[in-house]
Amino acid sequence: MSYISRIIFLSITSFLFFSLLPLKSENQTEKCPKSTLISFILNSIEEFDLAENYDLSCSQYEMIDLIPEDSLFISTKRSRGKDQICLTSSKTTGKCTHKIGFFIGKGNPSNKLCRMFKKNCSLNKKPLVLTETVERLYLKPSTLLR
Predict the structure, then answer these.
(1) Which residue from 45, 104, 124, 143 has the least number of CB within 10 angstroms?
(2) Cα 74 to Cα 30, 92, 93, 115, distances in angstroms
């Protein structure tokens, strides 16, 4: 094979290979089927200036959809220096079952969670002060949507 034919062969192969790759990364999660409740939660995170969504796979959304809506809680957890936004089916275990987003900036994550859903989370008109190690705020998104 001559030198010129090798160059032509490599050019054509490279062109075909790179033409198959997407030009920019697309958010694949938009293509996944989600319940109305999960869509509401994700939209709330997206619209809130101090929060960002994680890109989850379709199988992760399917796992979340297996949790009955009235048993689904949203909470926060500090992990690796970030205030995680978590979904869980039990507020007694305190386990963060599904990390769906995180808060950015400084401030109390429980207060940010309340502000994200435009809810007043105070008890007896006193500010709700929760520390991560003692108590965690759990909101039921199904009641927020109704």
Answers:
(1) 124
(2) 21, 13, 13, 13
Per-residue pLDDT tens for 73-97? Answer: 888 888 888 899 999 887 777 688 8
Helix (H, G, I), strand (E, B) or coil at 26: coil
Question: Roughly how many angstroms between the first and final C-alpha of the chain, as a whole number?
Answer: 71
Domain definitions of the chain by residue range: 25-145
Q: How far, CA to CA in Å, does 92 sit from each of 83, 111, 115, 127?
A: 20, 20, 24, 23
As given in the structure block, the two tokens for residue 9 are: 């062969």
Reported residue count of the chain is 146
Q: How far is CA 42 from CA 4, 24, 99, in A?
A: 54, 22, 12
Phi-psi region for residue 3, left (φ > 0), alpha (ψ -120 to 50) or beta? alpha
> If you ran DSSP here, which 8-state letter would residue 29 be given?
G
Q: Are 128 and 120 in contact (CB under 8 A)?
A: no
CA 26 – CA 92 distance, rounded (Å): 37
